[in-house]
Fold:
Amino acid sequence: MQEELQNVTEPVVVHAIINGERVDTEKRYSRENPANPEEIVGYGPVNTREDAVRAIDAAAAAFPAWAQTPLRERIAHMRRAIARFREAIPELVPLLSREHGKPVYDAQGEMFVSLAWMDYACDIAEEALAEKVEQHENGKTIITRDPMGVVAAITPWNYPLALSTIKIAPALIAGNTMVLKPSPFAPLAVSKVVEWMASEFPAGVLNMVHGDADVGVELTTNPKVAKIAFTGGTKTATHIMKSASDTIKNMTLELGGNDAALVLSDFDVNDERAMRRLVISNFLTTGQICMIAKRVYVHRSIYDAFVEKYIEAANKWIRVGDAFHPDVTIGPVNNLPQVRHVERLIEDAKSRGAQVIPLGRILDENVFAKGYFMQPTLVLGAGHDDPIVVEEQFGPTVPVLPYDDEEEGIQLVNNSIYGLTSSVWGEEEHALRVARRIEAGTTMINTAAVQGLDIRYPFGGFKQSGIGREYGVEGLLGYTELHVINVPKVGELPNIPE
Ligand code: NAD
Structure:
């Protein structure tokens, strides 16, 4: 990914894609640069529920032929679509950075993960989706993996490309068609990708509409939608589950997390690289990652030394600024409501007597004052039940709390309505023993956040962090129905009188 970036600063215009056609609307919404909100990065269409209905109809009409297209051909279409995405990286990276706020290296990382997963989904599809034929004493049974129909994909703003392509590739390869709705807080780069990818498939296979809850409601209630693939907040998912219940839709839900890092008594606080990994796993993408460590529990025997070394490491690594500053590691928060949410949690913690310690360096005070920037902070002395510990902050602040014995540490980690990811830090065998007792879809040892992610293995949450899995073989099979075709030996009906 060392291509020269093409940082076009003219506002871009993106469209809805319905049945292979660009659809524009008279009214458009704008997306600002969170590092400089006066700068409009681009515009998207203001779609209505009627547009969503048209997109769903197009996807439903395209479904029968696409489902019957041989798997190898579907994979070939997908590989061409991936190639189209790959070619556009020099244009996409700066666009994503400007609309989202994430530093260039971070935007590149998102492209890398998106492409790696889509390539992998193509590589594993023939084996994973192959039909199974079993001969047995009662005759023959064939088990096929059939597509479900129209998939409504609804995605968030924090990783707009990765969390859209995570759905597009498996759904389409498996023979489904799709209507995707990106988040209005980072719609531009993903819309470009979806438009290009859609052009590599027959009309109607991949459609896209813009909007928020209004359009989302159509996608989640329309009887022609068979499956919802949603990534976003747990609260939004409660609405979606209710909307979808009338027509019993299949669902994959990737929701919020309040991931814990459990630091064991044998963690080496003088291991600078491990400490930097921990800091990164709290603050990457300005803390706006579902799978980032959002609360840190440290064994009391090393707590004081830990805090001292953590602050040292954080002050070295955290450099807050514009996505294009050469030294930046952390950009602004993506949007103002998110800033207000994080501020509210910090103010609440302060009012309860917690100590809030600023971390890192502001690269340019003028830039900082203009944008949706926040000074990253460490929160000490919070109570276990305080909102800053219990709620998902999804921003640049993290509480660190001491615990006295391992049982208590494990209980604190598990005492949450969430269970997305988690991490255990310490001597490897010890950490592995503890990891087995953690209630989370993924547990990482001596690392966390995206460093501990491997797209070859399933990803998803326990408890209110979700239903189902993405990535891995399971992430592909989640877009299929099992279809059993039985061919019994005719003429023999055991236990039924003639
Ligand atoms: P959000 O729930 O506010 O929005 C997600 C999407 O849902 C957006 O496209 C939004 O327009 C749409 N939406 C909103 N209301 C809707 C409704 N009533 N019906 C249908 N669609 C509706 O989430 P967000 O703020 O964009 O993203 C942050 C959240 O996403 C955090 O909680 C984070 O943990 C979670 N997340 C989870 C994962 C994961 O894999 N588990 C990954 C990334 C983010």
Summary: The first helix runs from residue 49 to 68. The first strand starts at residue 12 and ends at 13. The pocket of nicotinamide-adenine-dinucleotide is lined by residues 154-159, 163, 181, 183, 212-213, 216-217, 220, 231-233, 236, 239-240, 254-257, 290, 392, 394, 420, 461, 466 (CB under 6 Å).
